[in-house]
Amino acid sequence: MARNLVKGKIAAQPGQHLIAIVCTSLDNKPKSAFALRFVVNALYCDGKKVHRPDMGASRMQANHNDSRKKEQVVVLATGGTIAGAAESATRADYTSGRVTVDAMIGGVPQIQEIAHVRGEQLANVGSQDITFAIMIALANRINDLLADKDVHGVAVTHGTDTMEETAYFLNLTVANRKPVVMTGAMRPATAISADGPLNLYNAVAVAADPQAAECGVLVVMNDRIHGAHSLTKTNTTSVETFISPINGLIGTVNYGRSEYFRRPFRRHTFNSEFSIEGVSELPRVDIVYACADMPPDLIDASVDRGARGIVIAGDGNGNMNAATLKRAARAAAGGVLIVRSSRVPTGKVGRNVEIDDDRLGFIASDELNPAKARILLMLALTKKRSLQEIQRLFYEY
Ligand SMILES: NC(=O)CC[C@H](N)C(=O)O
């Protein structure tokens, strides 16, 4: 493939350092504006290479699937509403994980026009029943598949309830630059206006798109492309359920045509320091949800049950009442890792704001919600690490 180096595109924004992007054109002789595609290879900030490609530096061209050769994409199915079935097209009650991967792919024959697609059934459960054993099997299978030079990308179908947890787990444990794209549905396969088929079509299109490489694990739902670090589920039934409240969308995809706005800033996949090679189980970490006048002995219950870490879904900026704070401090002094996250869906939890983390030996979750903070802490605890090192992980991933 011809490589045409374009140097010195400037994308400075008010308040930012000047950033120059070195781009490689994938097409030496563009026939139209749409045929031009760029992959950002490296970013330079004040003359120094920035290893984590930035957010918002440039808006890339929309892709153009028609002019591209068909790539091989493997769909790994785990269940969820996308594979759900109801008694009728208008019933709200249904059962997740009824439709097989072959039936899902067969239901969208147009998908074979954008990629060579084949499926594998890894599980078939509602995502409330996803286990770490399934997540580990999924990460291992993705790592194996992506090591095959003929596989361009992987799409994973999954229930939406815990999709953000599996996405974040894979973001830390898949060690490859190729696209990994998760999708699901809010309406079962049998419903009027089921959203699963178009979501699957769009997810496969993104998994076949060279621009989706090095973005970490992406989630494609309802025409939006989210990053695993940022996205969260916000509505119990609506098709517009996922938002990325902290860092915003990675891009959009409309009938298979994607457009990218930014790249994830945090470390992931190919530059993650985590590995699940040889790991079959993870240490226990519990989540304790804070509320007014909460009973403090929930902390003791977790400690007594052998939790190696506790994530507090704190009020506001990771707060908890004085009685709980006392028990959490006692647990921390006994070697249990205490991470302060928040039950509030947006905003960071910073260190030493109303609680003296330095004195009590606590960790602040920074941008991670409780469910994702738990996953990071579980992976962090697979190896001996100091408090400072674990706090660093919360700033970097
Ligand atoms: N829309 C969905 O996928 C949520 C339903 C189901 N509980 C699941 O997570 O699999």
From TrEMBL:
Q: Which UniProt keywords apply?
A: Hydrolase
Q: Name one GO biological process term.
A: asparagine metabolic process
List the signal peptide residues: none
Which is one GO molecular function term here?
asparaginase activity
PROSITE patterns reported for this sequence = ASN_GLN_ASE_3
Q: Gene3D superfamilies, per this entry?
A: 3.40.50.40, L-asparaginase, N-terminal domain (3.40.50.1170)
Question: Does the entry feature the keyword Hydrolase, yes or no?
Answer: yes
Residues given in the record as substrate binding sites? 127, 160-161
**Location of the L-asparaginase N-terminal domain:** 72-264
The entry assigns this protein to a family as follows:
Belongs to the asparaginase 1 family.
Q: What is this protein called?
A: L-asparaginase 2
Please give the organism.
Desulfosarcina widdelii
